[in-house]
Amino acid sequence: MTCRQVTSRTVRSGIPISHRGRGHICAGAGVGVFMTITGEYAPSTSGWVRDQVEKIEATGTTHSVSVQDRQVVLLTMLGVSGKVRKVPLMRVEHDGVYAAVASKGGAPEHPQWYANVRKNPVLDLQDGERTWTVRAREISGEEREQWWERCVAAFPPYADYQVKTDRLIPVFLLEAV
Fold it and tell me: Residue 26 in 3-state DSSP?
């Protein structure tokens, strides 16, 4: 289930729709999935992120998009601005726990979503057609090293991104609440 801002294009995919929060609709409502993130949606300023989010919402599944032929998940969060933000991230999962890697392609600064998650760690996570609420926890030390190996196994370019930047790329664990 995903929520998005109501537009004239909203009702065309054939997915069951119900209203949730002012100015938003949820596709797949009534399937027993609880979403906690509501409010005014602010689409990404990045074109490729916006395009991926729109495709996920139109199809109702994260399986409709990929990065370098690898699966993604969709995080929905409350931004520092107070607006709802969405970001597709590489799918890194182990024993039902997911990781979110704040790589930004090895840029010198963290991605914008990093500050949002630090301030508001309760998120909605969509993998495939399933969405649930998670709490993000930034990890460090041995736990981070173990998960970093899993992250690189899921998406090998992460290793190159870490070499490109002087910052330690943050990793969050996303655990169901």
Answer: strand
